[in-house]
Amino acid sequence: MSTKKNQEVSGFLKGVEKIGNKLPHPAMLFFILSIVVVIVSALAETFGAPVTYFDAKKGKDVTIKALSLLNVEGFRYMLNSATKNFTGFAPLGTVLVAMLGIGVAEWTGLINTSLKKLLSNINPRLLTAVVVFAGIMSNIASDAGYVVVIPLGAIVFANAGRHPLAGLAAAFAGVSGGFSANLLLGTTDPLLTGITIEALHNAGMDISLDPTCNWYFMIVSTFLLTIVGTLITEQIVEKNLGTYNGDYKPDDMPVSAEETKALKLAGISILIITILLVIGMFGLPGLPSLAILSEIDPKTGASSLSNFMHGGLLPAILILFLVPGLVYGKTLGKIKKSNDLVKGMTHGMSSMGGYLVLAFFAAQFVSYFGKTNLGTIISVNGANFLKSIGFTGLPLIIAFVIISAFLNLFIGSASAKWGIMAPIFVPMMVNLGLSPALTQVAYRIGDSSTNIITPLMSYFAMIVVFVKKYDEDAGLGTLISMMLPYSIAFLLSWLVLMIIWYVTGLPLGPGAFLTL
What is the pTM of this model? Predict the structure, then answer.
């Protein structure tokens, strides 16, 4: 019975992969999708009705209609904004800055040697769980997990003699599918909670809410998704991928005494940099002035690391890879002069050519979708539909999760979507006796679960490039077929957890209960 079931699942996923990979090259697919958006925008402007909603991020009612790009003004916009769309594409700078440091660490052999040491100390049975867990925990560092953990997940699996794409999928599932799970609080928590509070205040509801309001649920979710992600990787994804026959060959040579010495010195440099970063963020007891990376928030007057986490973290990651790579290379004699250091950086950038092409077309597609207001219109209409169906209690929460997951396919930004949905659903749920913390956590479940299967997720194009590094014939179909089981499993397991939480009445965070 189970064998037949596995074959059916495999057949379905293989079908998704084959259909997806018969589509044009991902760059050309984004080009075609851009044309589709242009045509649909013209139809929506002609036949669609305006929508009005309260935007919690802006603090006011907003009325929008679809904007056509199939006219003279639209043509001007597409032509004049093409370069800005490309250079302003969020993942572009993130990837290129990080690759400067990662390239040096990879070229000198630091990453390879580190992974060999890591694998020699990790029980092979725990490898998948470690990769998924590392992906989930990387969310604390904002988007850094996309450019660090995901490619490392592939390399770790390859060096362990397993399919690299299975490691990539496990890491991607943790980083993006598990975006709303963590043992620690990240930048997303105060961001979403701030929007929730704004929605309450504008509805005349004096209810307080802390950024920790989903913390208990997030902690349990971390362990749940680690287990589910591990099972999906080993029982479905890895079996479907089969034996790896690509060009990547792991280094089977044992770690030498010289490499061990270089690795220790590189580790010491990482420790020093980490200590300096921690002091820069939090200062020292009695010496708060040393916290040069924190700034005073003009709204609250409190010290804040928001700007560093969103802007300065990636250059810090560049240093965290570059300096140890330099120390390692110097110790082994691979880096003897500054030209060698530049050669290592160039090595990292040399693999980015395909990504640059793909990013150009992906940036245009994402920009057109936002400019035409199609994503916002779909979200507002979806929210109004859910409000009109008359569900209450647990059925309403479940329906809200599913709608959030669906709308996430059209708007990638978690805060932008919540800015639209919170003013509608937070007051509505309060009037039904459900707490804002519950509404927020239900939204986060839906928002995270489908991140890994939507091309509108800003890093999706970059992940396709990572996949093609190990399989030149791979495309969108390969990635979506790999990630679909994670998306479904995460959504269902999270829903079960939420149902259990709802029935037992456990608090979602410190002082954050399910009902009012």
Answer: 0.75
